[in-house]
Amino acid sequence: MDLQKLNDTLGAYCRNNTNALLGGILVENASLQHFTPMLGVKDQAPIVDLDTGNILKPYTKTWAPAQITPNPRIMQVRTCKVEVELEPLKYHHTYLGLFIKPGTDPANLPFEQYLMGKITAAAKEQMEVKGMFKGVYNPAGSTPADTMDGLNTIIEGEILAGGIAPIVTGAITSANVVEKLEGLFAMLPEEYQASPFKLFVSPKIKHWYNQTYRAAFGGVTHNTEFNKQYLDGTQCEIVPMPGLSGSGRVHLVPAWNAFFGTDLASDLDVVRTQLDKWVINVMMSFKIGVQIGSLGYYWTNDQN
Q1: pTM (2 d.p.)
Q2: How far, in Å, CA of 137 to CA of 132, rounded?
């Protein structure tokens, strides 16, 4: 194998597909599909939350404007990186083994695409599982959990500051999961209960809900067209989040109120390669952050 040639072609593949590779980590992340994107965030950007008060009134010619109070939230993105040392000779036989099956064609999956696909898939999973909810930003750290403040971390800070009052549910178990989730939703102001909501839960809590609902009512309540599951009689979609694994915290939000920020157009968002003797070093950098849009439209429980 000509490693110099492979490094050249791998580098060209990365340069020509930078947005697609980084998009595979950020845009195609299954959890982030439930977040509102903020693009072009360099460092900090406001999420404008306006407290309008009562602005609708009967007509008179008297001018008496209401005061609109901005309550901006700040989206903070952090630069994170991926550093991988590839030993192509080690992986090439595994790659070739993919094409033993009749009818497969290596032209449909070049070696460069195979290698980068493995790297981006791993980065996406680590951000989704370890960063988005449980992350605590630590610039001196070296793990996925150090790359950002996740939603659980942000929520816990707001609870301590008095910005969010958690709804007391106690521990959610397989025996009480339907009661607890429906009870949490029932605590919403009635005027919001007909609106589309997301209920972010751990995969285990979602599994418990399915099992308990089936045992009690003989089936799972869902929208058959899109195969999305909702709390019975509501527009509240139950969304299992890998990043909440092991957590009893649930997040109840309008569909628009969880945000992620990034800057795919930045010169700092790069994918590079470098040949070093028998190995090829792959370097990626990009920016990512998550935030709550409005504290007044975000509900959670008292579990961590």
Answers
A1: 0.86
A2: 11
